[in-house]
Design goal:
The complex is a heterodimer of chains A (314) and B (369). Chain A has a single domain, classed as P-loop containing nucleotide triphosphate hydrolases (Rossmann fold, 3-Layer(aba) Sandwich), CATH 3.40.50.300. Chain A contains 13 helices and 8 strands. Chain A has helices at residues 3-12, 33-46, 61-66, 88-99, 103-111, 113-121, 125-140, 153-170, 174-186, 202-218, 238-250, 256-282, 298-310; strands at residues 22-27, 51-56, 75-78, 81-86, 145-149, 192-198, 222-231, 286-290. In chain A, α1 crosses α12 (256-282), α10 packs parallel to α12 and α11 (238-250) packs across α12 (256-282). The longest helix of chain A is centred in the C-terminal third of the chain and has 27 residues, at 256-282. Chain A starts with a helix and ends with a helix. Chain B folds into 2 domains: 3-178 and 219-283 and 335-368, Rossmann fold, CATH 3.40.50.300; 287-334. Chain B has helices at 3-9, 25-38, 53-57, 87-98, 102-109, 112-120, 124-138, 155-168, 171-177, 185-193, 195-204, 206-219, 222-238, 252-267, 282-285, 305-340, 358-368; strands at residues 14-19, 42-47, 68-69, 79-84, 144-148, 242-248, 272-280, 345-349. Chain B is elongated and about 85 Å long. Classes of the chains: A alpha/beta (314), B alpha/beta (369). At the A-B interface, α5, α6, α8, α9 and α10 of A face α3, α6, α8, α9 and α11 of B. The complex binds adenosine-5'-triphosphate (ATP) (2 copies) and magnesium ion (2 copies). Residues 25-26, 49, 53, 148, 151 of chain B line the site of one magnesium ion.
Chain lengths: 314, 369
């Protein structure tokens, strides 16, 4: 793809966020995944969609955003929006029951301290239970859309690979079968998609490109696009850019004018570079979400982010 | 040197950088390493971040399981090495040391449980980092180890990894799988004596149960080594020469997270020696002065003036937003200082350079120290 084509692509496509009922949001640590997942949920609600936004056993970022406790069971946080933070401890019995519906045996597991310890420490049990909780809500079809706030890059790739890994490990038996069914349900490319979040800086851009490629290899789900978060709040066109360049040369070193002109110019250049590199390397549409410099707390950011996303959504 | 950084590095043998995702842990770890080297220390920075961030930040093309020396100007009296942990290689190495018989080792390589454990066991990476830490602390080439903790895992999960792994190899679990006098315990369990063991076989399949038996049969001996490691780590983390640096940002949510993390550390008697508030808007640290209107430089042509006045509006909006943001950040930093005291907090501005080369890290190191 030529650079010009990539740049056009990045501007002209619209984001089809809600066409599929399940969206996984991921990206490097701290790029704004939780904020964007929550903003997406509020936006879906504006379109009168019933939506669940959930985290998989996190330290509770959604809770801070919505200013209330959020647990394993979905609770309403706003009209049309439920939120949940799935917990492996609370989901274990339900998952066991679905694999082996013999109450006597399940009681044996839950009561046996050694087995309990084994379950707690055995590889991927935690992840599998969390994904299974997600699967139950997906299957119940109570929501039009489910938005999953996945962990950061590397951990997200591991998480998406858990059902496949279990299938490889166990090959036969009810758990392997269950893993296969779960994979077909929650990672079904026809019904689930991935949204990436990036920042307009060299290293985060590089990491996003690598993540996108890893996800292509790790899952059959498609990627809907990349949100370039904290992008330049002020856009400048070519003419303005030229004038800024001139100011850079003419204004006195260390002057306020020069400093702010440089800041404006640099932010615009960083954005352009990020947009171009991301679009070129991944072929995905890239959408800017401006950095909100003076937001007063995250509620504020959430509202502005929702409005910005809304301008891209078909 | 800045006092906060000085108290962190002086007498330190291990510096643990922790903090939320994306706040600048890797960059700070590299910058702290550079700072220490400029005071003559022989530093090794270890990262577990699979995203090769440290390599990029230090301008190295490749970073492997063995320390690579970073090229520094000749005027720097010390040295910096860096390494990126390869958990699988480290684990294989540890197994090779513990299990001497080659046949057993080969059997393990084909064992599904073993493969899973090295690749996907949550906490395995962290545990292997701990293994590596001990080796590096013994290594005579270095006198300071800087540990860059991975994103998303909260640092306590990191510290708990050895114990968690030791629990997996707990004797009570391993014993099920070990042969005993009157026939294998597993056989007895499988023959119907234990609903619990039956469950594993039933839900996870017979192949898996067999792999599991083989695995524990071979690796069971690790349990003691692991518990010892867990105990040794507890000792290491509590040492006076082990320092904790919490990296954070000036946003309200980051400050909340940081205060919570400092509490958690303190509860275990690990006292942080520095909280780095990174990427602070430069205006936050400058004295507040009423902004003057932007005037066009004399060199602008007449026809450029109308465009300039439009641009000046954008510049003005940008400046106002930055100043408002600076006020918000100042309030957050004050809140942090009020809670933790002046002697812990180090504020580092958002730099204009990209931190993707040793040069960039130098600039950060200068701002830090
Ligand atoms: N567009 C934006 N403008 C300004 N601040 C933002 C923007 N987007 C997110 N933030 C802020 O950045 C911080 C990190 O955001 P968030 O918690 O959503 O990231 P995350 O990717 O979920 O982080 P983690 O990897 O720790 O889960 C928060 O303080 C949030 O309020
Ligand atoms: N003081 C600073 N000024 C400008 N940019 C910075 C500063 N500190 C860090 N950065 C940039 O912020 C980004 C994140 O930094 P870094 O990768 O060090 O964070 P991290 O906490 O290690 O992230 P992760 O949790 O993903 O491992 C990088 O692009 C880095 O270049
Ligand atoms: Mg988050
Ligand atoms: Mg890092």
């Amino acid at each position: 793809m030529t650079e010009a084509a990539a740049a056009t692509l990045a501007r002209d496509r619209t984001l089809n966020l809600f066409a599929k009922p399940m969206t996984y949001v991921t990206g490097k640590g701290g790029v704004g995944k939780t904020t964007i997942a929550a903003a997406m949920a509020l936006l879906a609600a504006d379109q009168r969609r019933r939506v669940l936004v959930c985290e998989l056993g996190s330290d509770g970022h959604l809770a801070r955003l919505f200013g209330r406790t959020i647990d394993h069971e979905p609770t309403s946080v706003s009209p049309f929006v439920d939120a949940a933070n799935f917990s492996a401890e609370e989901g274990l019995v339900a998952t066991l029951t679905s694999v082996l519906p013999v109450e006597r045996i399940i009681r044996a597991v839950v009561q046996n301290r050694v087995l309990q310890m084994f379950m707690e420490t055995a590889p991927s049990v935690r992840e599998a239970v969390l994904l299974d909780a997600l699967g139950r809500h997906f299957q119940a079809k109570k929501y039009d859309n489910i938005i999953v706030d996945l962990p950061a890059s590397g951990h997200a790739v591991t998480m998406l690979g858990v059902p496949q890994m279990i299938m490889k490990l166990m090959r036969r038996g009810p758990v392997a079968k269950k893993a296969e069914a779960l994979e077909a349900e929650i990672f079904d490319p026809a019904r689930a998609q991935i949204l990436l979040v990036a920042l307009p800086e060299a290293l985060p851009v590089q990491e996003t490109i690598e993540l996108s490629q890893k996800l292509v290899a790790a899952t059959r789900m498609g990627q809907v696009g990349i949100v370039l978060n904290s992008s330049a709040p002020h856009l400048v066109d070519k003419k303005e850019q030229a004038l800024l360049d001139k100011i850079k040369q003419e204004a006195a070193q260390g002057s306020e004018l020069r400093r702010h002109a440089l800041h404006l110019l640099q932010a615009a250049e960083r954005d352009e570079k990020a947009l171009r590199e991301l679009a070129q390397a991944t072929g995905l549409p890239v959408f800017r979400l401006p950095r909100i410099e003076d937001a007063n707390g995250f509620q504020d950011i959430l509202g502005i982010a929702k409005a910005a996303l809304a301008s891209y959504v078909a | 040197m800045n006092e906060v950084i000085d108290q962190t590095l002086r007498g330190a043998e291990l510096v643990v950088c922790c903090g939320a995702g994306g706040v600048g842990k890797t960059s700070s770890a590299a910058a702290l390493g550079m700072t220490a080297a400029s005071y003559g220390r022989k530093v090794v920075v270890i990262t577990i971040d699979p995203a090769r961030r440290l390599a990029q930040a230090l301008g190295l093309t490749a970073l492997g399981n063995d320390p690579v020396q970073v090229a520094l100007p000749e005027t720097v009296p010390g040295s910096v090495h860096a390494l990126m942990l390869d958990p699988k290689a480290t684990f294989d190495g540890m197994v090779a040391r513990t299990i001497k018989q080659e046949t057993l080792q080969r059997a393990l390589q084909g064992n599904h449980v073993y493969k899973l454990l090295t690749n996907a066991f949550h906490g395995m990476q962290e545990y292997m980092a701990v293994e590596r830490l001990f080796a590096l602390l013994e290594d005579k080439r270095f006198d300071l180890v800087v540990l860059d903790t991975p994103p998303t895992t909260n640092v306590l999960q990191f510290f708990d990894a050895p114990e968690r792994l030791a629990r997996f190899f707990d004797r009570r679990i391993v014993r099920w799988f070990l042969p005993s006098g009157e026939g294998s315990r597993l056989k007895r369990l499988l023959s119907g004596q234990s609903a619990a063991m039956l469950l594993i076989q039933k839900v996870a399949g017979e192949d898996f149960a067999r792999d599991l038996q083989e695995f524990f049969g071979t690796m069971g001996g690790l349990a003691d080594a692991l518990s010892q490691r867990a105990a040794a780590l507890g000792g290491l983390l509590a040492r006076n020469s082990t320092r904790y640096v919490v990296v954070t940002g000036p946003e309200e949510s980051r400050i909340d997270e940081t205060l919570a993390m400092v509490e958690l550390l303190k509860r275990r008697a690990y006292r942080p020696s520095a909280v780095i508030v990174n990427r602070v808007t430069p205006e936050t640290m400058a004295p507040e002065i009423a902004p003057a209107a932007f005037t066009a430089p004399a060199a602008l042509l007449a026809e450029e003036h109308s465009l300039f006045s439009m641009l000046a509006q954008k510049l003005d909006a940008q400046r106002s937003a930055l100043l408002r943001r600076a006020n918000l950040e100042r309030a957050q930093i004050d809140r942090l200082r009020a809670r933790l005291g002046e002697t812990l907090v180090r504020v580092v501005p958002r730099l204009d350079v990209e931190l993707d080369s040793a040069n960039g890290i130098f600039v950060l190191a200068r701002a830090l120290a």
